[in-house]
């Protein structure tokens, strides 16, 4: 699989580290009543089929963190954006 780094261009998968689902929303409350929300945030994940936003880290290159939209069935890369520049609402 080839991944397009926003800084370095297209590179091999071995230069990157998958860092998780970019669509998960962190709970805002730390109250005990929100324990269920925190459990879901930490442990419950979907297994999407099709286009999905993910966090990636270019560990063997520029060290950039970015969000990548990838089809989880075909592994086709559909979009990429630096994590710091991304609007969270674009990933829902």
What does this structure look like?
By secondary structure, the protein is mostly beta strands. It has one domain: 2-Layer Sandwich (Folate-binding fold), CATH 3.30.2270. It has one helix at residues 35-43, and strands spanning 2-5, 9-12, 17-21, 51-57, 65-71, 77-82. It has a four-stranded antiparallel beta sheet with strand order 3-4-5-6, with no helix packed on it. A two-stranded antiparallel ribbon has the order 1-2. The longest helix is centred in the middle third of the chain and has 9 residues, at 35-43. The protein is elongated. It starts with a strand and ends in a 10-residue tail after the last strand. The mean pLDDT is 90.
Key descriptive features of the protein:
92 residues, mainly beta, Folate-binding fold, 4-stranded antiparallel sheet, two-stranded antiparallel ribbon, 1 helix
In short:
With 92 residues, the chain is mostly beta strands. The protein has one domain: 2-Layer Sandwich (Folate-binding fold), CATH 3.30.2270. The chain is 10% helix and 36% strand.
CATH uppermost class: Alpha Beta
Structural class: mainly beta
Helix count from the secondary structure assignment: 1
Estimated radius of gyration: 15 Å
Q: Name the helix and strand elements from N-terminus to C-terminus, one letter apiece.
A: EEEHEEE
Major sheet: 4 strands, antiparallel
The total of beta strands comes to: 6
Q: What is the number of independent domains?
A: 1
**Dominant shape:** elongated
Average pLDDT metric: 90
Query: How much helix is in the residues?
Result: under 10%
CATH fold name, please? Folate-binding fold
Biggest sheet: strands side by side, in what order?
Answer: 3-4-5-6
What's the CATH H-level homologous superfamily? Answer: Folate-binding superfamily
Strand content: 35-45%
At CATH level 2, the architecture is 2-Layer Sandwich
Regions with pLDDT < 50 over 5+ consecutive residues? none
Distance from first to last alpha carbon: 25 Å
């Amino acid at each position: 699989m080839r991944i397009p780094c926003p800084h370095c261009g297209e590179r091999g998968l071995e230069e990157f580290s998958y860092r998780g689902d970019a669509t998960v929303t962190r709970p805002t409350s730390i109250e005990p009543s929100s324990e269920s929300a925190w459990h879901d945030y930490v442990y419950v994940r979907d297994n999407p089929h099709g286009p999905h936003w993910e966090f990636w880290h270019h560990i063997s290159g520029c060290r950039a963190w970015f969000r990548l939209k990838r089809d989880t069935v075909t592994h086709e890369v559909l979009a990429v954006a630096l994590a710091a520049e991304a609007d969270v609402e674009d990933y829902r």
